[in-house]
């Protein structure tokens, strides 16, 4: 599978800053959403199953965003060991459930 070219050049400091700003905005929205879902879960009338699914998706997305933020702030090369530690079946299952 070929990855499409990115419209951003992360070696360009200005574009890194722009990406980081967009990422920070997204993290803020996701954190607010997470708080709202948590409050909704406390309601006796809450659809708990649906809200727990939403919460899991928000948490997963937040995790991806935080990892991306770390990579933008402190870029490091991906090692063969990093790649070997990825559980591709679990990753595909998560992506398929979105």
Which secondary structure elements does this structure contain, and how are they paired or packed?
Blueprint (H helix, E strand, L loop, with lengths): L12 H29 L6 H26 L6 H5 L3 H9 L2
Helix pairs in contact: 1-2
Could you walk me through the main structural features you see in this protein, from its secondary elements to its overall organization?
The structure is a single chain. By secondary structure, the protein is mainly alpha-helical. The chain is built from four helices and no strands. The protein has one domain. The two termini are 20 Å apart. Helix 1 packs antiparallel against helix 2.
SSE string: HHHH
Kindly report the average pLDDT value.
86
Number of strands: 0
Q: What class, by secondary structure content?
A: mainly alpha
Contiguous helical run count: 4
Q: Characterize the main sheet.
A: none
* Helix content percent band: over 70%
Question: What's the domain count?
Answer: 1
Radius of gyration: 17 Å
* Percent of residues in β-strands: under 5%
Q: Segments where pLDDT lies below 50 for 5+ residues? A: none
Feature tags:
98 residues; 4 helices; mainly alpha
Could you write a compact summary of the structure shown?
The protein has helices at residues 13-41, 48-73, 80-84, 88-96. The chain is an all-alpha fold and 98 residues long.
């Amino acid at each position: 599978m070929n990855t499409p070219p990115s419209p951003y050049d992360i070696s360009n400091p200005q574009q890194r800053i722009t990406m980081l700003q967009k990422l920070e905005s997204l993290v803020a929205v996701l954190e607010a959403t997470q708080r709202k879902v948590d409050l909704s879960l406390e309601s006796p009338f809450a659809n708990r199953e649906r809200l727990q699914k939403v919460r899991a998706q928000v948490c997963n997305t937040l995790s991806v965003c935080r990892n991306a933020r770390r990579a933008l702030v402190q870029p490091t090369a991906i090692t063969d060991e990093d790649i070997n530690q990825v559980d591709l079946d679990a990753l595909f299952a998560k992506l398929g459930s979105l």
